[in-house]
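TICKET: design request
STATUS: open
ATTACHED STRUCTURE:
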């Protein structure tokens, strides 16, 4: 019992040290990936291919998620607004929620869960087949050739999906709020602009862009450093999705707090 108690602090220190080491290596991978961004000829073709792949695998799921999200927010907010006698404000609350919080998070989680898992498995398969080591032997930096296009593809598609989430969510909310609950279309769209500023859309796209970088960086790092064998690749995929979700929510909190301090909300 005494020995097990003495080993507990050492185990905790080792885990903390391992987590800090992985965080540092992840940051190094990200910085090294964007360092040679200017050399477009090395990664432009791979960038287009990855953009098409991510758009193809995420466009339909993101719409299937955004419509129920908008409908759920509309139903919940509409019931509360009806009790308060302010049902015409449902559109403003729905659009504000979709643009400010729901859209960038949904886009990032879709890029991580659907596209990021595919990126992790692809990089993991290259790792266990020693393709990354072979590229280094041939004098090719695998981070510049493989990670850089995936970073920019993830950020680009995440920003584009953010617009799709907003559109699909607002359409879902419009159906349930206007058609099902009887709010006039004029009141719905007139109230949609009362709580928003142009800077809200800018920060939303910026957050989605940053979240796409995070998702792609974590996916590439986990795949390139996975254990050998199919089990190692599967664990890397699971770990990449979990870590991306944690980092994205933490980054969203920080960015939202900074934005609210710099740009006070419209009253």
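STATUS: resolved
RESOLUTION: sequence designed for all positions
ATTACHED SEQUENCE:
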């Amino acid at each position: 019992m005494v020995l097990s108690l003495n080993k507990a602090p050492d185990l905790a220190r080792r885990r903390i040290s391992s987590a800090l080491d992985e965080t540092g290596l992840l940051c190094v991978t990200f910085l090294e990936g964007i360092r040679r961004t200017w050399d477009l000829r090395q990664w432009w073709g791979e960038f287009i291919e990855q953009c098409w792949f991510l758009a193809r695998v995420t466009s339909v799921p993101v719409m299937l998620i955004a419509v129920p999200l908008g409908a759920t927010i509309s139903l919940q907010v509409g019931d509360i607004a009806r009790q308060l006698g302010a049902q015409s404000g449902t559109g403003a609350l729905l659009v504000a929620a979709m643009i400010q919080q729901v859209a960038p998070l949904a886009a990032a989680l879709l890029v991580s869960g659907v596209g990021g898992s595919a990126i992790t498995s692809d990089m993991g398969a290259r790792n266990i087949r020693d393709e990354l080591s072979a590229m280094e032997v041939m004098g090719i930096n695998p981070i510049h050739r493989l990670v850089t296009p995936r970073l920019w593809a993830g950020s680009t598609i995440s920003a584009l999906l953010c617009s799709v989430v907003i559109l699909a969510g607002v359409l879902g909310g419009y159906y349930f709020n206007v058609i099902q609950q009887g709010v006039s279309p004029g009141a719905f769209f007139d109230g949609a602009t009362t709580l928003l500023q142009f800077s809200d859309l800018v920060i939303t796209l910026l957050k989605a862009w940053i979240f796409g970088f995070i998702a792609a960086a974590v996916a590439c790092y986990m795949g390139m450093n996975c254990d050998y064998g199919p089990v190692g690749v599967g664990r890397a995929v699971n770990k990449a999705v979990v870590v991306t979700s944690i980092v994205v929510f933490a980054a969203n909190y920080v960015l939202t707090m900074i934005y609210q301090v710099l740009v006070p909300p419209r009253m």
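CLOSING REMARK: Helices lie at 2-35, 40-84, 90-128, 131-137, 142-180, 185-191, 198-224, 230-262. The first helix runs from residue 2 to 35.
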